Fold:
Amino acid sequence: MKTYNRFLLVIILFLAPFSVSAWSAIGHRIVGQIAENHLTGKARKAVISILGTESLAMASNWGDFIKSDSRYDSLYNWHFVNLPAGLNKDGVFSYLETEKEPNVYNKSLEMIRILKSKQSSLDQRKFALRMLVHMVGDLNQPMHTARKEDLGGNKVYVTWFGEKSNLHRVWDDQLIDYQKLSYTEFVEAIDFPTKQDLILS
Structure:
């Protein structure tokens, strides 16, 4: 139980703003790799017991890979949360605690409960870990925690270096693609957390 708690704390570390804020496939891999870089020995063993040889970087995109499988259509809302306009920090927390519709926040908490439960099967824990790593990445993409009215920035049209685009696409893909770096190169460039960035357990 303690091992999972430490691992989950490292993952939740990425709920705070970090140096990467755009989440294409590469963006999700960056989140997964940084999380893996900061696992304790016990947490690493726990991850291996769930994922085997699959890294957190590779597991991080599973939540998007399954979108093409109609069996997972019910997970559509798990990738974002629509926040009402005008909320301060306390208002956001209050809204998140009371919102009952499935969203990235309350489903992340559900995945944590599955990982902590001794009754969870290996398949349940594998699903929960893959989805949690993915959803933590989604939570850090500002357009995944945005307004329903503009579809998370999809209706906010912009021009990106002469190309018609939208705000969501710029955050999701174009900011990272513009750098022309692999996810490992990104991690090498940005993975320098301060003591305040790290959650100590």
